[in-house]
Design brief:
This protein has 4 helices and no strands. By secondary structure, it is mostly helical. It folds into 2 domains: 49 residues; 50 residues. The longest helix is centred in the last third of the chain and has 48 residues.
Length: 116
């Protein structure tokens, strides 16, 4: 039978990598303390070091944030234009109904009510 793989949260991985980078104990000691294979800790350390330059690149972070805001603005604008189109159609329909109702009786008839 095979064991189920353990999945560790990102905060836990970051904590382990911080312990490794502090260099107060060896990777083997940290691995034994937490019950993790040393190779897994090395992979986490490598991934953290590879991602670290992006954390300090403020220009690209600001650019990504701006792009996200612009994309959200475009989505909202499309939704609002669609709503304007629906409302315009409804207003035109209501104006036609009012015009058709006032031509016969002098009073506008909206809806499906019957006169006695």
């Amino acid at each position: 039978m095979s064991k189920l793989r353990k999945h560790y949260p990102a905060t836990f991985k970051a904590q382990i990598v911080q312990e490794v980078l502090a260099e107060e104990r060896t990777i083997g000691q940290i691995a034994a303390e937490h019950g993790i294979h040393p190779n897994m800790i090395r992979k986490w350390k490598t991934a953290a070091l590879a991602a670290m330059p992006a954390a300090f690149d403020e220009e690209s972070a600001a650019k990504r944030h701006l792009e996200a805001i612009q994309a959200e603005h475009e989505r909202e604008k499309e939704v609002l234009y669609a709503e304007i189109g629906r409302l315009t159609t409804q207003v035109n329909w209501l104006q036609k109904k009012i015009a058709a109702g006032s031509a016969g009786t002098g009073t506008p008839r909206l809806g499906r009510t019957r006169e006695p």
